[in-house]
């Protein structure tokens, strides 16, 4: 998420919005610079507005601390009925045994000395293969350095020892190096295995203007990868391209994808994405689609990273996919995303749980059906997870049906277990 910038509150009434647009046009005509024009263009973003967020009624949640004493835990991967791997941004990998309070945490010996932890980069997402209990296979996203110099962001394949005390590096990198910003900005990178065994990877645009719309770059994309080969998954939309990078692309035109979650019963993928100082997005991953982020303004501003363009620029790209949900203003900095499922969740089953860092809350979002299947139609924020634990980052559904979250406050962070009360 871009560091917050001072900006006026967004107008909400039709009258004020109209006056703002007229003023912007007048200033533009008088040569008053590009900022006003950019702001007016941003207001032209017709992505889905944020539904009203209300506290749920009769849906009390139980929140327990499973384990603590972490520093910036990024993600969780379950590697057995009562075991999970936890990544920490500084390059530490831990095994947590037990899915409730009093779980035991032990370090995992792994070759992670090349992790470059700076800004938004470091040891980031992790995902366990569907057959992890027998194969030990899992993947991580991590910023790679050589001689103290950041080189790229890598998806690395690993094999966990049966006792969970060590992990062997199997393939490095799995899908080729992802672009990097030395500052760590917009590193993205959270992997998820789909029901068909293919690997989905959300990536960041590294705060470089031309990357999101460039299908020859792996940044600002949702990739779909065959984990056995590191090549394109069967059926990818650009599988016949002459570009090795483009063959991996499922969706493009993203800013900084933070999570990809699979919807139960449909197998459809949904992504969570950081906006600039407004308009975080939830998107439905539709193969071959453009999601409309273009800070280069179609090549008119290739040298500058213009963050006042719309997150989904439907004026420049009329066929771009509108967001299923947009946060609007203020910033939430959504991060992890996981669907909750199973009878224990009652009428909340099938909702998408989305963690927020700056907003310090957990959203529960309900996808629509039929004509509304690509939209979020209901949003609730449980009071038990509204500012009570600070910044929330990772979100994964456990084998016991509970939702697991990581806090991201920098010190004494925790793994939280969330169930229906």
From TrEMBL:
Q: Where are the transmembrane segments?
A: none
What is the recorded name of this protein? PQQ-dependent sugar dehydrogenase
Compositional bias segments (type: Low complexity): 46-57
Organism lineage reads as:
Bacteria, Bacillati, Actinomycetota, Actinomycetes, Pseudonocardiales
| Disordered, as annotated region | 35-57, 164-189
Alphabetized, the UniProt keywords read:
Signal
List the signal peptide residues: 1-29
Report the domain of life of the source organism: Bacteria
Residue ranges annotated for the Glucose/Sorbosone dehydrogenase domain, each copy included? 71-411
- Write down the InterPro entries for this protein, in alphabetical order: 6-blade_b-propeller_TolB-like, Glc/Sorbosone_DH, Quinoprot_gluc/sorb_DH_b-prop
């Amino acid at each position: 998420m871009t560091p917050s910038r001072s900006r006026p509150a967004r107008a909400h009434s039709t009258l004020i919005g109209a006056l703002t647009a007229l003023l912007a046009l007048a200033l533009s005509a008088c040569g008053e610079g590009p900022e006003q024009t950019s702001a007016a263009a941003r207001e032209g973003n017709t992505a889905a507005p944020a539904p009203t967020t209300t506290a749920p009624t009769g849906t009390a949640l139980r929140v327990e601390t499973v384990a603590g004493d972490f520093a910036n835990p990024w993600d969780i991967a379950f590697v057995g009925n009562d075991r999970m791997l936890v990544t920490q941004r500084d390059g530490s990998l831990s095994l947590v045994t037990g899915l409730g309070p009093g779980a035991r945490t032990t370090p995992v010996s792994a070759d992670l000395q090349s992790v470059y932890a700076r800004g938004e980069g470091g040891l980031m997402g992790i995902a366990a293969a569907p057959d992890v209990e027998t194969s030990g296979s899992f993947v991580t996203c991590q910023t790679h350095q050589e001689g103290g110099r950041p080189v790229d962001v890598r998806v690395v394949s690993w094999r966990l020892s049966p006792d969970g005390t060590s992990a062997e590096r199997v393939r490095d990198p799995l899908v080729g190096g992802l672009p990097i910003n030395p500052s760590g900005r917009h590193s993205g990178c959270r992997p998820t295995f789909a029901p068909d065994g293919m690997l989905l990877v959300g990536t960041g645009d590294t705060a470089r203007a031309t990357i999101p719309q460039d299908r020859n770059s792996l940044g600002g994309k949702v990739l779909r990868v065959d984990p056995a080969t590191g090549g394109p998954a069967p059926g990818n939309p650009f599988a016949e391209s002459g570009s090795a990078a483009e063959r991996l692309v499922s969706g493009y035109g993203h800013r900084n994808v933070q999570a990809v979650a699979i919807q139960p019963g449909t197998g459809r993928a949904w992504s969570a994405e950081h906006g600039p100082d407004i308009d975080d997005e939830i998107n439905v991953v539709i193969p071959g689609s453009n999601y409309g982020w273009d800070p280069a303004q179609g090549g008119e501003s290739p040298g500058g990273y213009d963050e006042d363009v719309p997150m989904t620029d439907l004026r420049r790209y009329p066929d771009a996919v509108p967001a299923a949900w947009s946060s609007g203003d203020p910033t939430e900095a959504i991060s992890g995303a996981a669907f909750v499922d199973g009878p224990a969740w009652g009428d909340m089953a099938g909702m998408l749980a989305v963690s927020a860092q700056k907003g310090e809350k957990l959203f529960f979002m309900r996808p629509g059906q039929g004509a509304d299947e690509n939209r979020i139609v209901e949003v609730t924020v449980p009071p038990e997870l509204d500012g009570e634990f600070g910044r929330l980052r990772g979100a994964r559904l456990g084998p016991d049906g509970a939702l697991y979250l990581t806090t991201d406050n920098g010190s004494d962070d925790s793994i939280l277990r969330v169930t229906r009360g």
